[in-house]
Automatic annotation (TrEMBL):
Protein known as: ZNF16 protein
Top-level taxon: Eukaryota
Alphabetized PROSITE patterns for the sequence: ZINC_FINGER_C2H2_1 (PS00028), ZINC_FINGER_C2H2_2 (PS50157)
Annotated organism of origin: Tychaedon coryphoeus
PANTHER family named in the record: KRUEPPEL-LIKE TRANSCRIPTION FACTOR, ZINC FINGER PROTEIN 384
SMART domains found in the cross-reference section: ZnF_C2H2 (SM00355)
Pfam families (UniProt xref): zf-C2H2
Amino acid sequence: RFSQSSHLRAHQRSHTGERLYECDKCKKSFQSISSLVLHYRTHTDERPYECPDCGKGFKDKSTLVAH
């Protein structure tokens, strides 16, 4: 079960391969807007996740956690 219909639609796209969100920089496409947002940071130097101990910035939270 999915708590929101948008989550169900995103899950269904994982089975069909449908990719609705396209990067305007390189034309790579993604199944979710959140994946596109993460990808878009590869084209910029945006690093919104900062280590509170050393100040180093990361493009995604999982990399910060691994650090």
